[in-house]
Write a structure and sequence with these properties.
The protein is α+β, with helices and mostly antiparallel strands and about 350 residues long. Helices cover about 30% and strands about 25% of the residues. It has 13 helices and 16 strands. A hairpin with a 2-residue loop joins β6 and β7. The chain is globular and about 65 Å long. The mean pLDDT is about 95.
Length: about 350
Amino acid sequence: MPKHFLPHSALQSLIDVLAGQGYAVIAPQARNGSIVYEEARQADELPWGVSLNQAAGSSRTHQDGHSRCFAWANGPQALKPLVFAPSEPLWRIARTESGFAVEVDEMPKRPLAVIGVRACDLAALAIQDRHFLGGPHPDPHYGARREDMLLVAVNCTHPASTCFCASTGDGPEARSGFDLALTELDDGFIAQAGSPAGERLLAALPLQEAQSEKIEAAAAGVRRAAESQTRAIPGTNLRDALMARLDHGRWQEVGERCLACGNCTMVCPTCFCHAEVEQPGLDGSDSLHIREWDSCFGERHGYIHGKQLRPEISQRYRQWLTHKLASWHDQFGRSGCVGCGRCIAWCPVGIDITEEATALLK
């Protein structure tokens, strides 16, 4: 695919073109010390000059005054909340004179264009697609949000200390799953289409010819991002090794530190556990059936027929880690970890999945 140069000054044109095509444009914005995805209408809403310091149990933005708007790795959100809603009604049951009627809520119809998608999150979205859409009964709510979604990827040049996507093979460069990929330089972006929709988008933008030195500078930035990562998962297929260590003493040790808060599962871009609950009307005339995110760290997740199958926190952490890094291979043919590092940064006690996996293999 040919590469082009998109000046920073033309970023507003990108937003305007997408909005003109009927998309709700979602882009990263600095909020409350973090970076979140929200609807954007102006390019100056993006986090210009902002950097993000992340470490185990810590994530804070700060203003550096540099000229870029993507000089950071990731915030707590990925694409997951945009396609798999944290809480949504599936149907309503209402009393009628002859019995009851089931009313199905209307599916969302407005297409989304997301600017700033990272390579690790594209890899995670591919897993979510397989889970929700790949079987004989595709999920209509997920499918309605995923349909017509346009993805503008941004290759990482400023990884956090918590990132380890190079070791999982999922970054820092986006290789597939995007419509348009950008690599940021001080004065703009090297742009490359990844789909026919991306090609049409490029054709509508005020592009310049990409000079060879800018292309090389962009590529060098991505290479440095991979080389600078200090964390790594100890292998891309740990299935047999972890399953052989289900009685390892490390499970109890990490269980004593873990709060079972579920933060790691909430920020993880590949976790898809959910619960379905009834919300009855106060007058008894109807009941709303709701799907909401759940976590394998919660007590109700392992509660079956009056018994909690995993009463100890150490057992719940073992369930999460062995599913993510081991049995996921049976489901999807790959690990469920894409190396984004969010579970490290957003764990209140700084538990590090790469450290735990390494310790378990000793």
